[in-house]
Amino acid sequence: MKWYFIDKKYINFLKKFDYKVSKVDYGENKMKGFIGVVLQKENNTNYFAPVTSYKKKFEEMADNIDFIKIFDNNDKILGALDLNNMIPVPDNLCVEVTFDNLEEFRTFKNIEEKIKYWNLLKKELKFLNKKKYIINNNANRLYNIVKNKQNHPISKRCCNFKLLEEKCIEYENLILETV
């Protein structure tokens, strides 16, 4: 898995149909990153999940099928992976994050701040890649619950994956029409 930034226009398009799609633009050129690919469906639809920054309430929360806390080597919580908010994303609407392109998506006061943020991303990614099997398994199980059991308690806190897949195709067709 790797870090990605997802096209803002695409995210805003999806948010029109499902309010649970994560906000990605935090102003001052600060975009939320996504981890991907957490799930790949038979139709080659790739799902990416947002990572949220640390919140004190995470200390009391347990990992579950749709929420995985991210720790550093000292068992300090760095953030969490929100599988409940994973979204389908066309390949041409996501950009892999590298140290060189990081400033296209986020503003830094100086190089030290950029390096500190990059090191955080690397720590989070290292942890998540160790949990890749669990993440992929949870994403697949979660997808099937939401798709097949709309009244399940977990389904109520998740994005509508089937609807978002339809809107993903619709968005791709809109892009093709404008080219």
Give an overview of the whole structure.
This protein is an alpha+beta fold and 179 residues long. It has one domain (2-178): Thiol Ester Dehydrase, Chain A. 37% of the residues lie in helices and 20% in strands. It has five helices and seven strands. It has helices at 8-15, 111-130, 132-148, 153-156, 161-178; strands at 2-6, 34-40, 46-53, 67-71, 77-82, 87-88, 94-96. Strands 1, 2, 3, 4, 5, 6 and 7 form a seven-stranded antiparallel beta sheet that branches. It is globular. 29% of the residues are buried. The model has no long low-confidence stretch (mean pLDDT 92).
Task: State Rg.
Answer: 16 Å
On the 0 to 100 scale, the average pLDDT is 92
In the CATH scheme, what's the topology name? Thiol Ester Dehydrase, Chain A
The amount of beta strand, in percent, is 15-25%
Helix content: 25-40%
Q: Main attributes?
A:
Thiol Ester Dehydrase, Chain A, 37% helix, 20% strand, 179 residues, alpha+beta, 7 strands, 7-stranded antiparallel beta sheet
Furnish the topology, listing elements before pairings.
Layout: E1 2-6, H1 8-15, E2 34-40, E3 46-53, E4 67-71, E5 77-82, E6 87-88, E7 94-96, H2 111-130, H3 132-148, H4 153-156, H5 161-178
Antiparallel strand pairs: 1-2, 1-7, 2-3, 3-5, 3-6, 4-5
In short:
With 179 residues, the chain is α+β, with helices and mostly antiparallel strands. It has 5 helices and 7 strands, in the order βαββββββαααα.
